[in-house]
Structures are given as C-alpha cells and as structure tokens.
C-alpha cells in the first residue's frame, strides 16, 4: 500500500532550506559565538536525513548526486592544505593568519584561515555522517 | 625547514587522503602508496640526520609558545621508531601486492594502512599527552578497519573483542589524563615532567603512574592484560598481522617507556619495581604460550609478548646499559617480527595451513625460504652476529648492574625458549617427509619472497652493523635518562 506523504514532503521542501541556511549561519558564527564546523556539518547532514525520511534513498541520490566519500576526502584535503600552508612560509605547522578585506555586499570583513580549516571539518562531518547513514540505509 | 619533524606524520596522511578519491583503481593505489611511503621514509632519514647533528627537535604547532600549544618533539628514540615503522610499512605494502587480494585492495586497504602510520608516527612524535591519545585513536580506528576488512567470520568475532578492549582502555586513558590534568594543570609532556618533579613523591602521582601502566599495558600487551592479543592478531590476513605485530604493541611500549622516564621518576622504588615484576611475568606468560601451540601464527604472536617483557625489563632498570639495550631491542624487534611474520606468511601460502603438524619437508623445494627463516629465527633468539644479540646483552648487563641476578637469568633463559619455539617451526615445516605442499606458481612465490628476504637482510645488517648504530642509541638513552634534555629542548625553542 502506498501511503500519501504529501504533507511531510511539502514541509520538508521548505524546512530543508531553513535548516541548510541555519547550518551555514552556525558555521560562520563559530569564531565568535558557539558553533563551528562540527555542529554546522551535523546540522547539514540532519537536513539531508530529513530529505531521506520524506523521500526514499534513490530520490535523494538523484536530488543530490554526491559521492560522500569524495566529500570526506575533499574536506580532509582542504584542512590539511590550510594547515600545511604554513610550511611554505617556514613557520610552525597550523599557524593561522587573518586580515580584513572589503567584500562587496558584506563590507569590511575579517577573513581568518581557521575558517578554511573549519570548511574542511564541515565537509568531513557531512561526508562521514551521510556515508554512514546511506551505507546502513541502503541495501544494494 | 622547522617543520621537518612533522613530515613522517603528514606525508602518509596526505597520501591516504589522495587515495580516498579512487578506491577502485588498484594500480594507481599501489603506485601512490609506494610513492608516499618512500617520500615519508626519505623525510624520516633526513630527520634522523637532523636529530643526530642538531640534537632534539621540537616544534609547537600554530606558533604558540610552549606549553600552550601542542608540541611535537623528535628525540632520537622517537625518530628511530618512526623510521623503522615506515620501513616495515613499505615491506608490508610490497608484500600485500601479491597476497592481500584485489577485493580488499579496492576497499580502502591502502588508505587504512597509511592512516594507521599517521597515528603510529604521530604517537611516537607527539609531546602532548592528550595529543598522544588522539593519535592512539587514529591508529586504533585504522586498525579496526584493517582487522575487519574482508569480513570473514573469525575476523568479525575477533574484531568485536579487539574493539571492546580498546574502547575500554581508551576511556581509561582519558580518565587518567583527566586525573593528571587535575593535579598538574597542563597537558604538555615537558611541562608535566617539570611540574611532577616539583610535586615530588606524592601518593596520587604513583596512582596515576600505575593507571598509565594499565592503559598502555592493554595496548602493549603486558602480563595480565595481554589476553585479547593472541586471538585478535591471528584473525586478519598476514600483511595486516605483520603490521600489527611489528608496530601496534610497540606504540604501547614506547608510551610506557616515555611516561616512566619523563613523568614518574620520583617514586622509582614502587613504580619501576612494579614494572620490572610485571615484565618478568609477561616474559613467562609469553614463553608458556610460545611453547604451547602448534599454530605458527600463535607461536610468533606469543613471541611478541616475550619481547614486550624483555624491552620493559630493560627500561625498568633505569641505568644506561639497560635503557640502551631496550632501545636496541625495540628496533630489532620491530624489524625481526616484521620479517618473521612475512616468512610464516610465505609458509602458510605454500602449505595452505598454519598447523605445524600438517606441514613438512619444505626445505627440498624451497631452500631459500628455509635458510632465511633459520637466519631470522637465530636473529630472534639473539645469536651473536645477528640483530637480537646486542640488545639483549645490554639488557642483561643492565640487570646485573642493577643487582637483579635472578631476573637477568630469566631473560637469558627466555632466549632459549624463544629459540626453541622458533626452531620448532623450522623443524616441523622444513624437515622430514614432504607433506602439505601445494603447487604455488613460481612467480607468486618470487613476489612473496622478495620483500621477505630483503627484510631479513636488513635485520642481519642491523645486527652486524650495530657498532655504527651505537652513537644513535647513546643519544636516545641520554634523553631518556635525563628528562631535562627533553624539557630544555621544548622550552628552549628546539633550536
């Protein structure tokens, strides 16, 4: 028997973007307020899990055709590259730098290399969580 | 290049990450893994040279001042261990090409090995006790992957045991670090050393010392805590077993030696006495196991336990000969266990069984294998020109200098039992009527034999050339016996 998922599917389409935006907000907030790459990544994967609950695995894979192992690997590469950048300046590994930039729309913003490291963390968390859930959920 | 000491940790990590992108391309996986290990090995040798010429290297990550950042320290002991772990990994990977099978190779086998090396080398290099915990977890998680990869029934059963034991010991590690932190208020190992020396002989410090012994004893398989090891190590395929047998317990042993020479030097009468008694018991337990089995894997696995006991006994004496003997024996044991596991791997591949009673007469058809096994067995027991000799000689000398006559006799007697257990494999597998010999393609046999023989040759060179290694070992011993060299290197900026 096929159940009618109209309400949950419609709500999910809306709520997904709210959670997604919130995860981005949490991610950027991490430097000054609670948050950061790990929580942000978990929120993002919870948004995708919501999609998985509302639709089935195949549909979600078509919506987001992403290989999450590769996402994990990209995240690790970003993190290691950010930390290793310091090697080329002959300062200790993991030395971060920051500066202020004038960005259109946002105005004067400080950009810290720790943010790029956190981007790596974010991607790794999303990649690992989704790999686990898809592996357990899928039966192919 | 102030970051040189991180390269043996970072290069395997980088290459493992790259390997995650194309798990199905076996050729590329093999080539890149080999390339990564060679690069890491070159950097390790460069580091060895640097530590030899410039003394202990230290670097605090993120340009923070020690003790506020994570400090990485490379003294001679850790550098030697890092180099030999990369060397062993190279041979294991070489051996894996022909023995591990395509199915495992396409399931993240090589990335798991490289991640494990990241953990092992990181644990050897770190100068921060919590960072050591993190690196322990890195190597343990990769080892969980390696032990279960392939999904045979026995692997599943033993991996559950292995994971359970290690989860318990890891949480105990965190608890112990918590206790230590609540007393000294720092995690930097050099800083802990200074603060503990200032506190002096407090009861709680001794309790923490014993807790650390339990934690690292579970990882390093000392006497009452080795129960998980024989079963778990027998489960995975030979290359993984080689990697585990040669490296994983040594990380625990290294951690015990490091903490007992750097932190807990105030109440030696209790802590080091305990360590000595336990190491003797470990040797006895290992000897019993090594004689009890007809299974080649089990025999060599129990020899790991004996070696752990011998190394820890040398370290517990806390004098120059004993400590130097321990380091000599530690490196020897990494190399020789690697060689032995690969050798029995070839034997098991030929006969198709690990039961000694079902094999025999291999020497006629496989003379090279037989004689190199005999050389490795003599090396393991410590017959003079070979690698095990100098380490054990120094350990016994250290024991006699420390007026531990009976214990030293125990060490010597254990050598006989080690020799007996190793020769039993030789007699059963290579002498007598030919039985259990399967047709192995000459090409496969050659490919399996090449890394094995090279490793045996390296162990022989290690034994014959030990004269040239003495300056390195002396440097390592100096740091271990005098913690101020270590702390000065950390707080002096390591220049």
UniProtKB/TrEMBL annotation, chain A:
Main location class: membrane
Keyword Plastid: no
InterPro entries, per database record: CPA3_antiporter_subunitB, MnhB
Swiss-Prot/TrEMBL keywords: Cell membrane, Membrane, Transmembrane, Transmembrane helix
Chain ranges passing through the membrane: 12-32, 38-55, 67-91, 111-133
Transcription regulation as UniProt keyword: no
A Pfam family this chain is assigned to: MnhB
GO cellular component term, pick one: plasma membrane
Domain Na+/H+ antiporter MnhB subunit-related protein: 7-131
Membrane-topology descriptor: Multi-pass membrane protein
Cellular compartments annotated: Cell membrane
Family: Belongs to the CPA3 antiporters (TC 2.A.63) subunit B family.
Name of this chain's protein: Na(+)/H(+) antiporter subunit B
Record organism: Psychrobacillus lasiicapitis
Lineage of the organism: Bacteria, Bacillati, Bacillota, Bacilli, Bacillales
UniProtKB/TrEMBL annotation, chain B:
Signal peptide range: none
Record's keyword annotation contains Cell membrane: yes
Residue stretches in coiled coil: none
Membrane topology field: Multi-pass membrane protein
Major localization class: membrane
GO biological process: ATP synthesis coupled electron transport
Protein localization: Cell membrane; Membrane
Gene Ontology terms: cellular component: plasma membrane
Keywords: Antiport, Cell membrane, Membrane, Transmembrane, Transmembrane helix, Transport
UniProt keyword Transmembrane, yes or no: yes
Protein name: Na+/H+ antiporter subunit D
Organism name: Psychrobacillus lasiicapitis
Membrane-crossing segments per the record: 6-22, 31-49, 69-95, 107-124, 130-150, 162-184, 204-228, 240-262, 274-293, 300-318, 330-350, 371-398, 404-427, 448-465
Ranges of residues in domain NADH:quinone oxidoreductase/Mrp antiporter transmembrane: 127-416
One term of GO molecular function: antiporter activity
Family: Belongs to the CPA3 antiporters (TC 2.A.63) subunit D family.
